[in-house]
Design brief:
With 339 residues, this protein is mainly β. It has no helices and 25 strands. β18 and β19 form a beta hairpin. The radius of gyration is 19 Å and the shape is globular. It starts with 12 loop residues before the first strand and ends in a 10-residue tail after the last strand.
Length: 339
Amino acid sequence: MNRFYSHLLIPTAVLFALATGAFSQDLRIKARRVIRPAGQGGRLAWSVPRNLIAYDKVGVDGFYDIFTMRPDGSEDACITCAATALPGLNIGSPRWHPSGNWMVFVAQREPIFINNNARPGVGVANDVWIADYTLTKFWKVADTSGNAASGGVLHPTFSHAGDKLFWAERISTNGWTLKIADFRDTTGQPVLSNVRELKPPGSFATLYESHDFTPDDSKVLFSGNLEGQPAPRGIDIYSLDLTTQQFTPRGGIAPAPSGTSVMYRPGKILIAGSTNSDVDSVTGVIDMNQSSPAWRTTQPMANKRFQHNLLVLPDGKVLVVGGASQYSLVATTGVRNAE
């Protein structure tokens, strides 16, 4: 869960030993390469059809923009820095459509008292935008300006079939909700329809963070305090059945409840480190394909990290990007077992 502290990310990379093959296999780091020798970057998204990585990075003006680059670091370019159709404030959290033809992201619509609260991953005063294949045309597809307290958006993401969009939306000063919409391409323009709120029955939640769809797109995965847990550090992971609207706790409290998480295989989630200054090296995994999924603590990282990012590579490995140990940037690597 990287709502508050996912913004400090440096371009060092560690290959976690999570790759294709049996879980019992002792998978180890094969290589480490720095592809960006300077600067910050985070919230990476890799389009396999385009062989293109999108990420956001804070600029000299103090606001975030979206960049793209090849996996080897070449062709690194900002796609939003000079985009006059966009507000020109914080822009980030890119996610690709499965086809590679579209990119969804968030953008801050107007200045607020503390613009840092509008950065990607915090999301105040953000709206949902979509870029086309050329990454030069942009459409605002969900406007939250009519919501209380400037509205806001977290983590919009496409379904695996590419026909739905899922996000978390700020509806009050201390309140968030989940939304989902049908997505289609209408003569070269992205269109959202049938926008609806996903409200788990009996929920007491004030905080929701959207994350992803299950592999068959029948459920969505999200974090929240549905059972009255303290937010944000006490939130847990849930799934919501899109047919029955029933939510299911996914394994209780994670080993790293404020860590960064990623789905590294269908239905399997890794969580690692922390997202605040309570630095930790703890890691854990959960298999949500099981009838009674439960978190399991795994071998800790070689270095304690917070404010880092996790990225699933096309071959199934997981990349740990940047972060800090207390107030020192982490630039070291090590060898560890997968589980």
